[in-house]
Amino acid sequence: MRKMKRNLENIKRRALPAALIFVLAAYLLTGCIQSFDAEAYVKSCLDALYMGDYEEYADQVGISVEEARSDIEGQLDDSLESAFVGDTVTSDEDKQAYKDVVVGIYKLAKYEVVGSEEKDGYYVVTVSVQPSNVFEDLDEGFTAMITEAVADGDFDESQTIAYLNQYLEQRKAENEYGEAEEIQVNVTGDENNVYTIPEEDLTNIEGALFPGAV
User: pTM for this structure?
Assistant: First the structure.
């Protein structure tokens, strides 16, 4: 029993960072815009990140839809790939399935841009978000799932990510939202009309949309 507990702790240390790695907040959304609408810009950024809707974002920042997709999906691919560095047991199929789960969870994001205020040299945009409960009790829930598989004699370490995918798919199907809350997003510009959303603000939105994922 003690050995099994140690093994479970090792599995959790490997699996849980992978489950939480898909934060794209490190990707600073930047665009050069002559006629600037801060609310439309923030919404287009969120739609690109969470919904995979790149058309408005591409138009906002003056690039092609293909470039926008390549930039953002490439960042996601890099983030997910880093989650499996040193992993020699997870199959390519399970890694791809994990990416598919992540993309599906992102589409649960529920947000609405509800206002903005122009200040001295920057904009403050208000985003109303409703938190998803997908990652609530992730540690306990996933551990319980693995413990049951071990007890049934079904557990195979090479299938850890497959179990995680199964757990997250179940949580996605059972998703519920909490009460809406408002998050302030700063949009800063420079003398060349290049606008940027700070990493900290993107992280705050991510944490509000998916508590437990950041």
Answer: 0.83
